[in-house]
Design goal:
This protein has helices at residues 50-62, 68-79, 85-126, 133-136, 138-151; strands spanning 23-24, 36-38, 45-48. By secondary structure, the chain is mainly α. It has a three-stranded antiparallel beta sheet with strand order 1-3-2.
């Protein structure tokens, strides 16, 4: 076998770890969501349990191949914390709903920002100097800042 230059290649880069954050305990909720625990210093906050949340992410992938009952049993055995198949499906459905809702709000913010740009350009093109004061008002600036913040 002759010696050949294998060249160079880029190795797969490590995946950035998920960043789990504390979430507020809203309302009179008795059941703590899977992957979270009540914070010791504040009863109104829920702290993430990274091991359980990472197992939940794997479980979402397993749902493509296995039944929800099998995945819920695997998740219970892996983490040591019980979750029913209905609870698992409900949790995933709620996450998808929140993700779609967030995407919709960001899309609306993007369209709002574009509409404000067009309105300002139209006013300048018409040469209406009296209406230019609208774009100088604090209310307009706040609206623009909120739309920009939604996109980040």
């Amino acid at each position: 076998m002759s010696e050949r230059d294998l060249g160079s290649w880029i190795l797969p880069q490590p995946v950035e770890e998920n960043k789990w954050v504390n979430i507020p305990r809203i309302g009179n909720i008795r059941t703590v969501p899977f992957g979270y625990k009540v914070a010791e210093d504040d009863e109104e906050m829920l702290e993430p349990i990274p091991f359980e949340l990472e197992a939940l992410e794997k479980a979402k992938l397993y749902l493509r191949q296995y039944s929800s009952r099998q995945v819920a049993n695997w998740l219970t055995k892996t983490t040591g914390r019980y979750i029913s198949h209905a609870g698992l499906l409900k949790r995933i459905k709620n996450e998808q709903h929140r993700r779609r809702k967030t995407a919709t709000y960001r899309n609306i913010a993007r369209r709002l920002e574009k509409a404000l740009d067009k309105a300002q350009a139209y006013e300048r093109a018409l040469g209406k100097e009296g209406n230019e004061e609208f774009f100088e008002r604090q209310k307009y600036r706040d609206l623009r800042d909120r739309a920009a913040a939604e996109l980040v």
